[in-house]
Amino acid sequence: MLKNYLKIAFRNLIKHKLFSCINIFGLAIGITGSILIILFVNYEKSYDRYNEKADRTYRLAVSALVGDTKINQTFSSSITFTKLLEDFPEIETGVKFLKIGKSPVFIGNKIFYEPRVFAVDSVFYDVFSIPLLHGNPKTALVEPRSVVLSKSSALKYFGTTDVVGKVLALNTSRETGNVDFKITGVSENMPADSHFHYNMLLSLTSFPEYINDKGWSSNNFISYIVLKENTSKDNFEEKLKDFTRKYMGGEKFDEWVAKGNYWKYYLQPLTSIHLNSDLNGEFEPNGNITYVRIFSIISIIVLLIACINFMNLSTAKASLRAKEVGLRKVVGADKKKLIFQFLSESTLLSFLALAIAVAMIEFLLPYYKEFVGRPITINYFENLSIIFLLVFSGLTVGIVSGSYPAFVLSSFKPVAVLKNESTQKTSRFNFRNILVVVQFAVSIILIAGTIIVYRQIQYVQNKNLGFDKEQVLVVKNPGTIDKNIQPFKQALSDYRNIVKVSGSASLPGTPFSNIGFGAEGVQGFTLNLCICDNDFQKTLNLEMVKGRFFSREFPSDSNAVVLNQEAAKLLGWDDPIGKEINNWRKHRTNFHVIGVVKDFHYESLHQKIRPMALFRIGGYYKRSESYISVQVKTGELAETIKFIENKWKQFAPGAPFEYSFLNDDFNSLYNNEKQTEQLFLIFSSLAIFIACLGLLGLASYIAERRTKEIGIRKILGASVARIVFSMSGEFVKWVILANIIAWPVAWFFMNKWLQSFAYRIHISWWVFALAGGLALIIALLTVSWQAIRAATANPVESLRYE
User: Domain-by-domain residue ranges, the chain?
Assistant: First the structure.
C-alpha cells in the first residue's frame, strides 16, 4: 500500500510541476533559513558551557547607588574576595582577574602588543576548563613573574608551543618598566564561545600592591566563585546582604542606606553572562538575549510561512484531485486511509525539501559564518542528535503542513464529486485566505522592523555626539615610545596636514575608570575619569560651557579638574568654577574646578551621559597615554598616514605601528545592532520571497480555475486591464487586512526594542505605511504577472480548456 501511495505521489509531482516546484523549493528555502537562524541562536546560547563546573560558577557583580550616581559593574576589591572565601564555606574555590590591558612584549629585539593580558590567581585552571599543552596547571601560576601563554601566542612568538622555561619581558606600567617573566605553561586557545579570551596570563603574585590593598573601595578585580554542589544561589545572595553590612560599616552603613544609598553584591551565572550582562568592566562586548529571542521567533516565522504556502497550495489544488478521492471512496477507501495517503505525500515533499535544504545549508554556511562572525558548524555524523533532529523536523513539517490539506481532501463527498459539483466553499473568507493574511501580516511586521532598526542605527551613527569623531586618526600603544611621547606629538603637530594632536588614557568608545569622590556639603559620589593632555579639548572639538580647559600656562592645573555638565548637575553647583572636589580617601587631595565642558557622548547611546571628571596627564593620576589622537585634514590622507608611520618608526624603532579612526572605533559599539539590521533585512526578504512563491502558486491556480470565465469575458469585450484588476482585487483585500493586523503588533515590539536606547528615534506613521505599501506592491507584481499571462491568452484556446 505504501508503495502505491509513493507511486501516486510521484505521478502527482510530475503532473503538477509548477505546484510541486513551488511547494518543494518554498519549503526548502524556509527550512534553510530556519536552520541557519537556529544554528546562530544555539551558538549564542552555548557560551561558557564547555567548563566542567559551569553550572556552579558565578561572577561577582555590584549594583549600587552612591548619592545620585548609579553603579553597575563587574569590579570588586581584593579584600572583598578574601573575606568571601573566609566567611562562606559554601564556596569551593574562586579566582580573581586583574586587567593588565594591552602590553608591549619584548622578545629579543622584537616588540609585540598583546591586547588580552590578565593577572590571575594560581587556581585559575581549577575554575576554567582550559587544558594545558605544556606545564602543570596546579603550579603554573604560583610563583611571581610566571606567565602562561595561549597556543596562538606561543606560535606567534616562538613558532612552537614547547617554550616552557623561556623568558619574555613585559612592560605592564611606566613605573616598573620592562620586567622579565618566565614561561611556565602553554594552554590551548580559549574556545570561541567564551565570554572572555586571553593571550597571556600572569601570576597575580607578581602584583602585591594590588592583592594586598585592603581598601573596600579599591575595585580593581573581576572575581569568580565556584559554589559547592547543591548550594542555592538565592540563599547565598541572601547571605551576601549581611556580609555587605558587616564589612561596610554596620550601623553607619544602615544610616547611609537610610539616606537612599545602597550597595549590593550579586552573582551572575557564568553561562548567562554573554547574553544577559552589559556592565561596566565587561571583558568583551557581549551578545544580547533580546536579539536571540527575536531571531528565534523569526526562525519559526520563516518556517511557518513556508508551511502556510504548502497548506495553501495543497488545498487550492484539492479540486484537481476531487475525482480521484471520489473514486477511491467508491471502491472502499475510508477516511483514515485517505488521510494517511495525503500525509505520506506531504511528508515525501517535506523530505525532498529537507534534502535540498541540507545542500543549500552546506553551500551557504561558509558565507554565513563570515557574515555573522561566528565559527558555526554543523557536523551531521559526529553528532547523531543532529541527524535525529533533521529527521524529526522533516516528519514534523510534513505532518503539520500536510494535516489540513489531508483532512480537506479526505472529506470530499464522492456523490457530489462525481456529479462535478463544486468542492470549494462559497465563503469569500475561507481558511486559505486566513493563511495568506497571516503570511503578509508577518511580512509587513518584518519590513517595518527592518526600517525602524535601520533608522535607529542611522540615528546613533549620525547624531551630534558633542565631539568630532571624523578625521581623527588614533595612534595606539604610545607607551612603547615612553619618554619620547612629547617629541613625537610635537613632530606630528608640525606637519602641514595635521591640525591638532593630543594624548589620553581613554577615548570615547573605550572603557573609563569610575571612582568615588567627595565635596563639601555633598554626599559621596562617583565620576568617570578621563585623563588627558592640554590639547584634548581642541583635538576633539569639545565645547566649553564655563571656565577653561587645561593649559601649559598654569602649572597648578596638575591638581585641577574639568567637569562635564552632568557632573556639575550632580553636585548641584550653578557655578562650579573655583569650587573643590576631593578623592574621598584618608589622605585627601583636593582638586579645584577650572572649567565645565558641554556634555558629550563618550559611551554608546544605549546609556545616558554619565558624570565625568577630566584630569590632566602628569598630575595626581599617574596614567599613561594609551592613545594619541591626531586630527587630520581631509586631503592627502594616505600621505599623512605614511608620514605618521615614518615618525613612529623614528621614535619607536622595532615596534609595530597600529592605528584606527575614531569614527570606526565608536561606531563599532553598535555592531550588534548593525548585524541585527542586516539579519532582519535578509530574513524579511526571505519571508517575503516565500510568501510571494505562495501567491504565485495561488494566482496560477485561480487563473487555471477561471480559464473559461476569462475567455468569455474577453469575447464579451473585457479589456486586459479589467481582467487583471478583477483577478488581483481579492489579493489586495488580503494585504490591506494584513496591514490592519500587522501595524499595532509591529509598533508594540519595535517600541519595546527602542527602549533599550537612552537616545532613540520616534516611530513615525509613514514607516508602517511604507511597509504596507511595499508588501502590496510586491503582492501585486507577483499576482499581476500570472493575471496578465491569463488575460492575454487566446480566448478560443481558453474556451476549449477542460
Answer: 1-50+286-424, 98-216, 472-669
